Give the backbone structure.
Amino acid sequence: MTTRTYNPASPESLREHAKLLIGHSLEEVVGKYDLDHAANKGKLGTLVEEHHYQYRPNNASDHEPDFVEAGVELKVTGVVPRKGDGVAYQAKERLVLTMIHYFGLVDEAWDTSSFLKKCRLMLILFYLYQKELPATQRKFVMSPVLWQFPEKDLEIIRRDWELIQQKILDGKAHELSEGDTFYLAACRKGSGGPKERLKRQPFSDILAKSRAFSLKPSYVNTIIDSTWSDEELIGNEKDAEKGLEKITLEKFDGLEGLSVDEIAESYDYPIAEDKPKSYYAGLSLRILGTKKRWLPEFVKAGIVLKTIRLAQNGSPKEAISFPTFDFIETSRQSWEESVFYEKINQKFFFVIFQYDKDRVLRFKKSMFWNMPYADRIEAEKVWSRTVEVISTGNMEMLPKMVDSNVAHVRPHGRNKADTLPLPNGGSFTKQCFWLNQKYIKKQVN
DNA sequence: GCATGATCATGC
DNA sequence: GCATGATCATGC
């Protein structure tokens, strides 16, 4: 028998008990011996529950929170030093909440959903991710957070949940993507690779990858930030009921056909003769109601704002580029580990302008977009070919625009001399993935 | 006119 | 100084 020094029915007491871990690894607190003999060596969260709380993890965990009496679900997640300042932390990855059961989910209603039952109130512990250390030796950092979704966020999460459910009802579980939704995402969960066992879905014979509900990394960062301040977000609860998507699109109502200068004037945005590269993004943000260089709601949802200028014939002036990739790292990664994969699974918000016959740039429309399933498959092919080319070293064989109707690879450095090493010891001009202009044209029209 | 290659501009 | 987003330049 163990003596508990906390009250398992009190969320606040559970949080206080978690604080004892700060600055230590689990091994330091409960001893190595116990962990070596742990029945479940898999998940750090489970180990914390078993050994730090001495609480027997429930087995029907998909339907009830870990600490049943307190209604608290325990989550343990990795953070890394934030780029730039190195002082604060940021999420290492998405926070996986609970598995998606394709057959069960379709019969659920949001209010009584197993997701909500389980995740309404979460105690989130953060550890410093260090690759070289086993999980039980990683140190806990930051104050544990007792997280209850604000009403405004919960409304958006409900929509996300319903959208995922709808896709399964439509027999499209295999087409799910993290870019479908805003805060809550259906992330890949499972072994991956050739050994993976695909899942059956209720309304189609096509097998689907195993997925889990997760909070996007961007949302996890918002939770992390909340440990420093209680930021008041713009907007209000009434807005949230309409959904982030609708609110955003409504901001652009009535602007169709107006010239950039006319819009700038009515939004008190500087009218510039020589427009800097970031001009249209800045104007779009102003229309969305912020003077900042980003929109908190978009940051939280991981939505990427892109401005697109179309020529009179409807073709975008430019292709869309992604970050430069490291040849060596890319050649070692799996598709799902790749940055390109991550990027094309994001949700985008396009603000589209078009030049008229007098070469005046006018607002055309705005739209949310995420890459359709078939095109993600095509993008994977382009990526695979790229990996192949890197490994053979025949760099002139990199996929070009004519090789795919979705994406291609092109230089992306300071200049030709700006290179990165190749696995074979040579080096080559920095490259990145691009979405084809024609493809973008098709998607926005 | 378009595909491809090359480079610029900005913010962190 | 560099990553990223944006844009220019060329040759077919």
In short: Residues 277-278, 281, 306, 317-318, 320-324, 412, 414, 432 of chain A lie near DNA strand C (CB under 10 Å from a C1').
